[in-house]
Amino acid sequence: MSKTVEFFFDLGSPASYLAWTQLPSLCARHDAQLVYRPMLLGGVFQATGNASPVMVPAKARHVFVDFQRYAKRYGVTLALPPGFPINTLGLMRGTVAVQRYQPQRFEAYLSAMFQALWVQQRNLGDLQVLAGVLQAAGFDPEQYQAWTAEPEVKAALKDATEEAVRRGVFGAPTCFVGEQMFFGQDRLEFVVEALG
Description:
It is a single chain. The protein is an alpha+beta fold. It has one domain: Glutaredoxin, CATH 3.40.30. Helix content is 56%, strand content 11%. It has helices spanning 14-29, 41-48, 57-74, 89-101, 106-118, 127-136, 141-148, 151-166, 188-195, and strands at residues 3-9, 32-38, 174-177, 180-183. The chain has a four-stranded mixed beta sheet with strand order 2-1-3-4, sandwiched between helices. Helix 1 (14-29) runs parallel beside helix 3, helix 4 (89-101) packs across helix 7 and helix 4 packs across helix 8. The chain is globular, with a radius of gyration of 16 Å.
């Protein structure tokens, strides 16, 4: 029986992006199933009293140096999008919707969005920019916007975020292997150990 890695993430989190660059191949190597769990990081912060490291200037300077070290180690690009930190409510509703309505294209969607934000430094808070990114990746921007307004989609994101908080999540990314929780993209070696 293969093990499962649940990956709670928010597109607007650079650490989530870094973890995403590694998790699919990590899970493939260890015969584990990767389960994507989109959540709203802002909602998690609100519920737990946690805050983005960028809200603490001294910490912010260090965190980005650290993220660049990991990007170099992973052989990936990491660049900050304009207006960071961004409000990801619409994006994460869209993420829940694509996972729900086009699951076979979900990984292509994640790739387009993470690359647009953290490699191409696109401002996905601008609806025209977002529409261009979606279109280029083969998604219908109007359909996407309509999905983000659906009550079921809004409720699903809220439920996922509340579940994350109930399970002890206080930031992104957070991975679970069974009941074991691992916070941060710098804990992936422990995820590997948990997969045994």
